[in-house]
Amino acid sequence: MTRNTKTQMLLIGLAVAMLGLGFSSKTLYDTFCRVTGFGGTPQIAMNEENLSVVLDRKVTVKFDSNVSPDLPWEFKPTQRAMEVNLGQTGLAYYTAKNTSDKPITGVATFNVTPTKAAPYFVKTECFCFTDQTLQPGEEMTMPVLFFVDPELDASERHSDITEVVLSYTFFESENQPQITAAIQLDALP
Amino acid sequence: MVAISGEDIPVVHDDHDEKPRFFERWFYSTNHKDIGTLYLIFGIISGLVGGFLSFMMRLELMAPGIDIFTNEHTYLVFVSMHGLIMIFFMVMPALIGGFGNWFIPIMIGAPDMAFPRMNNLSFWLLPVAFICLMISFFVPGAAEGNGFGGSWVMYPPLSTTGSPGPAFDFIIIGLLAAGFSSIFGAINFITTILNMRAPGMTMHKMPLFAWSVLVTAFLLLLALPVLAAALFMLLTDRIEGGTAFFDPARGGDPQMFQHLFWFFGHPEVYIMILPAFGIVSHIISTFSKKPIFGYLGMAYAMVAIGVVGFVVWAHHMYTIGMDVNVKAYFVLATLVIAVPTGVKVFSWLATMWGGSIRFTVPMIWALGFIFLFVVGGVTGVMLANAGVDTYLHDTYYVVAHFHYVLSMGAVFGIFAAWYYWHGKMFGYHYSGFLSRLHFWLFFIGVNMIFFPQHFLGLNGMPRRYVDYPVEFEFWNQVSSWGAFVTLASVVVFFLVMAEAFLMRKKRKVGNNYWGEGATTLEWTISSPPPYHQFSVLPRIDGGDEDHAH
Q1: SS3 labels along B471-486
Q2: B473: CB partners within 8 A, 6+ apart
Q3: Inter-chain residue contact A8 with B325, CB threshold 8 Å
Q4: What's the rounded Cα separation, in Å, for the pair B143 and B151?
Q5: What are phi and psi of B209, to 5 degrees?
Q6: DSSP string computed for B366-377
Q7: What is the tens place of the pLDDT at every residue in B114-155?
Q8: CATH fold for the domain made of A35-172
Q9: Which residue of chain B has the CA closest to A173?
Q10: Is the model's pLDDT at A88 over the cut of 90?
Q11: Does residue B125 sit in helix, strand or coil?
Q12: Cys-Cys crosslink for B225: which of A19, B262, B272, B506, Cβ 3.0 to 4.6 Å?
């Protein structure tokens, strides 16, 4: 192998590595957002072990809703805002209504602002974890169970946080119902 | 396959100017000078196409109301194609492919590029890519009409669900071809510069143009594969029922495309300007009759710009809803780039300081470059601030900023190089009067176009609209008159070429027609250079007299 070929192979390797990095960006970006809360990605916990401590400090959680133009649904939070103590579990409701004449499955994405609060915003139960199917004209009330991690109080950088906005956007899911059977929500209070 | 290679052609040792016949010479070409010429011709042609598109835009914007275009979509197609063509098919081929191919091997004392046949592939991928882009004009794009109107940034969902027609698929294929062309070119340049320097030419004695192309080639090699990946993802996202990398309804994230795009896109702007830095350094040094001030600082400033250029991409995305701390980082990192750039500007000034300056044609282009690049750089420092940028984002202020660094920075660099090396490439000189006329018309024209756009942007006129309220009419009109002046300068440029060609017998030039100040290796060989130069490698003597004192 000549010196030029060696250099060439090395450089091709570099380009291929960058191409690989580009293609794996989906996984990397997802993981990065989930771990760091980057871009307002809230945390998800399936148990409530952190709830032993409840602090006096309060934050106001505001609720926001959006619907994709392709989805003929009405989607609104039942309450505009709610005050919770750090560590206290909050239960909020959203209502969704299918205004079309056929059953439609929707799926929601979620986001927390200010984005720096996201690593401390923990959802234990949410309608956004699964697809939701609504029959024509059906209206459904959907719960969100969440708490704000008391660790937030320990961070200097988060001392200015008094409000957190939780936002959902409903999109049409790619798994549309084949048969007109309502899928029940997971049992929740 | 027709194999035309060194082994098949009888080597004529006593006559180095033995050239292959026309078709073989220009279509199977493996000679770095011929490929460089092809790149330059290609750059001029695409420059005309891209310039035509922008001229139509300026005609449209001359008065409020929709006058020239039949609908907004077609206007947006013109905007998008102007950007893509000027970046990928004019500036890059001219600076890197054209002057890089022509002069990198000569400047470092090499007989040719490391991989001459790959060089041929690099070039011929470009016309293919360009044809794909041209086809996209005439096939359905969005519901509103033919062509792709999603701007050169190609953000989804406009480029996925928003442009269902095949127009954007042609652009993707064209850009992938252009991207691979550049990657092959980059591999070629890096290998040539690292391995094929003449004996005695250490990295620290290498001409600054070679340094600039080396850094540029590394940026290409690291940035373009990311663009290729992002384009592939767009392509599969566009298929009905395909992937959902950028579709939030199916777990994707459109912001990820912006991150990927600008991770490529920001180094891309340095890819376009760094070779011009190298060229301007040589010109300033030649016509000040002084070695460049702070040679090592100049070389490593370019390396620093290249490295930092990879970690500032999100300053193009301040308005997507970023955490304030993330913004703070990107503001700081972006402002840091002003330091190595300042090193370069002040070193150019220091080179001229106390030099015996000659205001030759390439010198006035180089001085124009420095002046206009600094104007664009200063508005860039302003835009780097996230708070200011929130106000100015996507206004004409941004348009003015990047045209000052690119349409004036990079293009002035191209013309400076053209007039500096014209005699070397073609063997004859051009008319001093006509080329100066070209400079002044172009200088006045582009400033007339883009300086008023600062005012428009500060007053809140957004980019990429076919129409505007009557309040913006005056400066838009001035800007459009500037386009006419620039058009006149383009005509003069072709007159310069034609006149020089007609007078070629009378204006023959020698080896070193610029005299004492021109010290790099291309001035030691004939003008035009022999078809194969340096069959005996030049030897660069020890001692650092070129730059150390």
Answers
A1: HHHHHHHHHHHHHHHH
A2: B63, B64
A3: no
A4: 16
A5: -65, -40
A6: HHHHHHHHHHHH
A7: 999 999 999 999 999 999 999 999 999 988 889 999 999 999
A8: Ctag/Cox11 (Pfam 04442) (2.60.370)
A9: B249
A10: no
A11: helix
A12: A19
Q: Give the containing element (helix H, strand E) for A167.
A: strand A163-172
Surface of A (69-98) touching B: CB under 8 A: none
CA distance B164 to A42: 33
CA distance B353 to B351: 5
Tell me which residue in A8, A114, A172 faces B191 most closely, judged by beta carbons. Answer: A8
Answer whether B323 sits within 8 Å of A169, measured CB to CB.
no
Residue A113 in contact with partner chain B when CB distance is under 8 A? yes
Would you list the domain boundaries of chain A?
A: 35-172
Q: Which helix (H) or strand (E) holds A122?
A: strand A121-126
| Interval B243-299: pLDDT, tens | 889 988 887 888 899 999 999 999 999 999 999 999 999 999 999 999 999 999 999
Contact B123, B181 (CB under 8 A): yes
Helix, strand, coil percentages, rounded to 5, for chain A: 30, 35, 35
**Closest to B292 measured CA to CA, from B352, B340, B371:** B352
- For the beta carbon of residue B251, count every other beta carbon within 10 angstroms: 14
Q: Give the confidence band of B442 by pLDDT, cuts at 50, 70, 90.
A: very high
Tell if the pTM clears 0.95, that is, is over it: no
Of A18, A39, A40, the CB nearest to B225: A18
Q: What is the ipTM of this complex?
A: 0.84
Contact B321 A40 (CB under 8 A): yes
Q: Are B235 and B169 in contact (CB under 8 A)?
A: yes
Residues from chain A contacting residue B326 (CB–CB below 8 Å): 38
